[in-house]
Amino acid sequence: MSPSDNIEPRLDRADSRVRHDAGLAGALRGFIDQVRSGDLGMLPVFVGLLLISIVFSALNPVFLAPNNLVNLLFDAAAVGFIALGVVCVLLLGEIDLSIGSMSGLASAITGVLWVGSGWPLLLVIPAVILTGAIVGLIYGFLRNQFEMPSFVATLSGLLALLGLQLYLLGPTGSINMPFSSALVRFGQILIMPAWLSYLVAIIPGTLIVWGARRADAQREAANLSSTGMSVPIAKAGVLTAALLFAVWYLEQGRGVPWMFGVFVAFVAGLDYALRRTKWGRSMFAVGGNAEAARRSGINVRRIRMSAFIVCSSFAALGGVFAAARLASASQQAGTGDVNLNAIAAAVIGGTSLFGGRGSAWSALLGVLVIMAISNGLTLLNLSSSLRYMITGAVLAIAVIVDSLARRSRASHGRA
Amino acid sequence: MTRSHQPGELLLRLRGVTKQFGAVTALQDIELDIHAGEVVALVGDNGAGKSTLVKVLAGVHQPTTGTIEYLGQPATFDSPGKALEMGIATVFQDLALCENLDVVANLFLGHEVNPWALDEVQMEVRAWTLLRELAARIPSVREPIASLSGGQRQTVAIARSLLLDPKIIMLDEPTAALGVAQTAEVLNLIERVRDRGHGVILISHNMEDVRAVADRIVVLRLGRNNGTFNANISHQELVAAITGASENSVSRRAARKLETADQIGEALQ
Fold first, then answer.
1. Which of A18, A278, A299 to mutate to test the interface with B (most CBs of B within 10 A)?
2. Do A288 and B98 touch (CB under 8 A)?
3. Cα–Cα distance list, A188 to A81, A159, A318 (Å)
4. Cα four-point dihedral sign B161, B167, B171, B172
5. Domains and CATH numbers, chain B
6. CATH of the domain spanning A41-190+257-405, picked from 3.30.70, 3.40.1560, 1.20.120, 1.10.3470
7. Where in the numbering of this chain does the ABC transporter domain appear (chain B) (predicted)?
8. What pLDDT, in 10s, does the model give residues A133-180?
9. Scanning every residue of chain A, which has its alpha carbon at the shortest distance from the alpha carbon of B100?
10. pTM of model > 0.90
């Protein structure tokens, strides 16, 4: 602290009417205020995961076994990618109901081009992502040019893409992929080396502390109040301990799947894009008040277009991952509960259906919840009929929580 | 701050601007000149076409016919972005703020510093500096707009329009939601903006505010020009121009009051 503190107040501390929470106790007080006003953040996810772990491990101890959790992470990556795209469209207050079909179509294209026509994988995957981008482009065009509500446009897309998927797969209905291939090994076997997993587990905490130090120094230089290091260090400490424990626990089994690692890398990338770039800022602005964004000179149509393109591209990539996981492209790929799981994951993780609120991490956390439920129910040998009903109920609850939290935020003067 | 324009230089010239919404003619043959370093007040009754004219200049609506000359060149403002880029900033009556974003994000919306790695510190410093210039009472620039009062939102909106150092700034009812002190601040601010050599278009229903700061008062009535006056115009004359007759509800009301006062006076004598 420099001596000038006592002479002239910081640029942002000149107003005495605002309570400025400082230090750990302040941060805790701020957090409690936030939750009470309906800004739940990641809280529902942690409560959900805790409940799920208690209930399912009581019913079947295998649930918490390291190797079961490893399998869960393998399963989570594919749906997680799709949920990551959903976050983008939800941020704008739009929706994409065809993500399941898009992922199914993507796995069919992978099967046809790679196994059927013998294209190299390095060409197949870009081609699949390009297909996704084109589908997103069409949705964006329909939304922008014809003001077609996105749920109608993507609902018709759901059927059209499913039709294309069935057409591509032909009468046989499924294409098997060679087990020895890199893609299938990636989807079923490949595990990150232990040292790398531990290293990755340390990165978030390090980034938090480093980022906070850098921000503090910059704010200090600009005569703004600095937040102090106690909160970031505490945050980083808890996070690093939790991640290290998680990695250690998974290492008791097979370890951390590469597929999941790649997914987390993409989540981190999208998080940066949403929080720290002009594009991300524009996404939140359009989702919050499209007319205000337009008048600020933001090209709302282009932002919308980009969201649909990102969403469908991620869904296509998720389809490739799903095909790798199942080692086949079938007529069933992407049908059933894939759509709902991906949307529910994004909403459970804290991305609002009403637009303007959310984060990339919500896809990661939400998909863990959804996959834990699905995995737990499978371990109990419940039929898919029951699983569908339960997943449906979970989505309904997530939306109700979102709705109530939104109402509470409005009455507490938070967006 | 750039001051590339001499006071008195013609910035904007509208000739014969007409805007139709279907069968409704909102503006007809509007003529308007805006010079650097002057405050032009745009007054008129509800439905006179003030807001439509603002939206035409802000690029929200395109005129049906008519010509707009900007800095001596024929110009079209085909999108809000274009108008902003050319140096016409607008504070709309509905403010057009994103409630889910904080004050800094709203101020810099569409013009963020460093698009690929937002420079939050620099933006926050500029935000505080600007708000301090306006003597604004904003408790925290890191709170979402949803938590601010109406007056604070108005201040944020005005601050935002000044961020890009525009040539012309349009204020649509800027003082309608403000308290006494803040109104005075905004009027001071308008004069400061004018003295820096910008053209200011002020739309207001508040005749006192208008006469306090305007160099010229342009009256619109039913979508047409209905006279241009200087700030010395009397209240009655202005109301007459706005309502289109010296015999109007305002003057009748005033006369009635006078009459009552006379009667009371007579009764007392």
1. A278
2. yes
3. 16, 30, 15
4. negative
5. 10-233 (3.40.50.300)
6. 1.10.3470
7. 12-247
8. 999 999 999 999 999 999 999 999 999 999 999 999 988 889 999 999
9. A415
10. no
